[in-house]
Amino acid sequence: TFLNAYRQSKYTFDVVVPLAKRIFIEAFEQHNAMQLGVFRLLETKQNEIEKMILSVEKYKEYQIVRTKIETLMQGHVIGKHGYFLPVRKYYE
Hints:
By secondary structure, the protein is mainly alpha-helical. α1 (2-32) packs antiparallel against α2 (38-73). Strands 1-2 form a two-stranded antiparallel sheet. A hairpin with a 2-residue loop joins β1 and β2. It is built from 3 helices and 2 strands.
């Protein structure tokens, strides 16, 4: 649904991505103090990038749902193969 897609998109962008960035910063500081190996540092960076990709995917889902709702509200029909002509045009 629209509201669910919006909430997931906002949560991943506002909470998950900044948290992943903060985790990487902490790991980088531990690496600088020679408490963490380079492979663990790369793993945390990979995790951060995966969270960013997740955020973009959630935003994409939100935009798709939003576009479908706006299309329906404008009187267009959504079919299996994309968007068709407006319903009003068939009856005019």
